[in-house]
Amino acid sequence: MSSSLFGARIRAVRTQRDLTQDELAQRLGFKDRQTLSAIENGDRRVSAEELLNAAQALNEPLETFTDPFLLIGEGRFSWRQTAVQPALLTDYERHAGRWVATYRTLAAQQGHQTPPDRRTLRLAMTSSYEDAMSAGERFAATYDLGDVPALRLPAVMEKVFGILVLMVDAIAGISGAACRLPELDTVLINRHEIAGRRNYDLAHELFHILTWDSMPPAHVETAAESGGNRVEQLANNFASALLMPAPVIAPFGSWSDLSGDHLIRKLNKTADALAVTASALKWRLVALGRLSTAAAKAIDDGRLRNNGRTLLSPKKRSAGTVPPLFSKPFLEVIARALNEGHLSIRKTATLLGVAIDDLPDMFSAFGIEAEVEV
Q1: Contact 321, 352 (CB under 8 A)
Q2: What tens digit of pLDDT does each residue of 98-134 get?
Q3: pLDDT tens digit string along 250-279?
Q4: What is this structure's pTM?
Q5: Quick one: 42 exposed, middle or buried, by C-beta within 10 A (0-12, 13-18, 19+)?
Q6: Which of 56, 61, 176, 368 could form a disulfide with 363 if both were Cys (CB 3.0 to 4.6 A apart)?
Q7: How would you write the chain as a 3-class SS string?
């Protein structure tokens, strides 16, 4: 493990324990705080004895400081969630960190190159909502997302931007997240959300990835297609315009002359065609001047929920409407590590948080060959 990673981890654990550098330096037997500061900054290597002393002084397993398949003290997450208890979110973040760290470690071993430069959006806190919508429209046009932008967006994020996109089994209340590391950007999406919500969350988190330096997102945000602080509202406007650019909306004709059941049916049908939610479509039409605010507010949102269909139970949805777990680029890296003997079957199942018996189906869902016979 590099000095910088060890330094980040010892700083994170020290902070978590509410210890000052002076206090921990004394526990470790250092003559002054500067020695510990140099370690935390990655400017000084540690010996095996010092490593053991740190684990004992902080009452942590050695793996806390040595396991490459952990994220501790590095990177940042921004979660889209609704009423998730902080302790549960913290615990789930550790699980998500394992997936990100596993990919980062194995991909680097396999020679995967990260993009030399991170692409960004030229937006700031002072940008208008119209600026954010224009950026979303330009993104859809520049990367040729086609008539249904939601369908091509994941591939563009992965292949053009080098963003790791993972469909995951999240705890109740979590819709998705963005994660920023110095060498890797990741977006996680709760695969059990309805398709329109998944796609909206993906575009929303893309905004955060592309504006992280100019507008760092909060660690926790409320999952909604409207409202929130200014950064979230900019992200929502960007996401709506990316998924529903004006040229894509235009062929669906007039909206202002519709009302009642006719308007609701058209909203639900069009939203299905664009793989978005009818609610998001409604407010996008308002932003484009195709539907009045009064007409939008008069619509019973209950009739737009799940685009007008009865929401199936998670068990029934998993039969065909839920995407496979994780992603093909992610599992290709895992499979290669398995096939080359760098990971055992048991270790793989532990890292991914799945049963060993589920591994074959997980890989076959993407047509990936992996040595997973027990």
Answers
A1: no
A2: 999 999 999 999 998 777 778 999 999 999 999 999 9
A3: 999 999 999 999 999 999 999 999 999 999
A4: 0.90
A5: middle
A6: 368
A7: CCHHHHHHHHHHHHHHCCCCHHHHHHHHCCCCHHHHHHHHCCCCCCCHHHHHHHHHHCCCCCHHHHCCCCCCCCCEEEEEECCCCHHHHHHHHHHHHHHHHHHHHHHHHCCCCCCCCCCCCCCCCCCCHHHHHHHHHHHHHHCCCCCCHHHHHHHHHHHCCCCEEEEECCCCCEEEEEEEECCEEEEEEECCCCHHHHHHHHHHHHHHHHCCCCCCCCCEEECCCCCCCHHHHHHHHHHHHHHCCHHHHHHHCCCCCCCHHHHHHHHHHHHHHHCCCHHHHHHHHHHCCCCCHHHHHHCCHHHCHHHHCCCCCHHHHCCCCCCCCECHHHHHHHHHHHHCCCCCHHHHHHHHCCCHHHHHHHHHCCCCCCCCCC
